[in-house]
Amino acid sequence: MDNLYFNNNEFLWSQFENKIGNIQEKAINDISESIDDDYQRFFNDNADPFPNPDPLSDQYIDTDNAIYGAETQKPEPSLGFNNLWDYITSGIKEMVSEANKTKMVSPPAFKNMDSSQIYLNFNYTNTLERIYHISPKKILHIHGSLERNDNLIYGNDKVSSVDTSSFDINFENPNLDELGSRDYPSNYNDFIDLITISESEQKNIKNKLSNDLNEENEQFKKEPKYNLLEKWLNQFEEKNITQIIVLGHSLGKVDKGYFELINQKYHSTTWCISYYNKQDQVFENAQSLSFYNKLNFKQFNTLLK
Q1: 3-class secondary structure for 77-96?
Q2: Which of 54-63, 157-166, 269-278, 280-289 is predicted with the least confidence, judged by mean pLDDT?
Q3: Is cis: bond before 174, omega within 30 of 0?
Q4: What digits encode the pLDDT tens for the residues 206-220?
Q5: Is residue 113 within 8 Å of residue 134, measured between CB atoms?
Q6: Contact between 119 and 128 (Cβ < 8 Å)
Q7: pTM, two decimal places
Q8: Spatial CB neighbours of 196, under 8 Å, sequence gap ≥ 6
């Protein structure tokens, strides 16, 4: 997964939802190279149906044995992984479960968290309910809640796709010229056919690879829940919402639509955006918002009071 989406780059991991679903070219090349290696190994292991010629042996039987051996060794190309969605989801659930069980050994970080306000929660934890005693009626878990056993929502608003041309695999058997064709034994050409990857077979292999990869990747397409957010916001009168504070969110493009919707709904409010340091990605991401000029930025530590 690291190679597929993040290219072993720690910075890309910090942009998880912006990068998940965008397949890295290097990952496709690695998949192609691995399958290429499997086929070249197969060709080399089956370079001669008569490795130890015996004038007294039955060449038909020898060839039949070679065919059986090649059939059992012939590669079955695959991506080398499956069920990435389930794998990542189980990891997220485990992480959130541990967070939900964490006991507070010191006073809560935000001492003045107001239980009369409303909260749009982008993570899956029950911290607001458990630590700050906020009523569930005042919280919208827009991406789902593990405690409620919701389907956890994550991913990208756009995912990439691949086609058969993305895979560069060498299917050519370098031993065919030397092996040639024979009329005897009668099953010899069956062996040659088995260790030859026809154009139609090559096409089928690449089709399967691209279809499997696109199917895996499509699971990471995140469908925004704008209707859910709007319905929830309609419960609260505009005049009662005077300030919007964003804590610990990078304002990435995947969730940009939610903030635009909130600003349209409460266009007279002020915005306070938290950041950790001057290199925080939130500064760059915020510039894409249509209401950027309304934003005030405050360092996260100053909001803990």
Answers
A1: CCCCCCCHHHHHHHHHHHHH
A2: 54-63
A3: no
A4: 999 999 999 999 988
A5: yes
A6: yes
A7: 0.79
A8: 173, 176
d(CA 269, CA 240): 10
10 Å CB burial of residue 246 (0-12, 13-18, 19+) is buried
* Residue recorded with tokens 């608003």: 157
CB 70 within 8 A of CB 46: yes
- State the Cα–Cα distance between residues 245 and 266, nearest whole angstrom: 13
Q: According to the model, what pLDDT value does residue 13 have?
A: 44
116, with CB counted inside 10 A (0-12, 13-18, 19+), is exposed
Tell me if 274 sits within 8 A of 245, measured CB to CB.
yes
Rg (CA), the chain: 29
pLDDT-derived band at 104 (thresholds 50, 70, 90) equals low
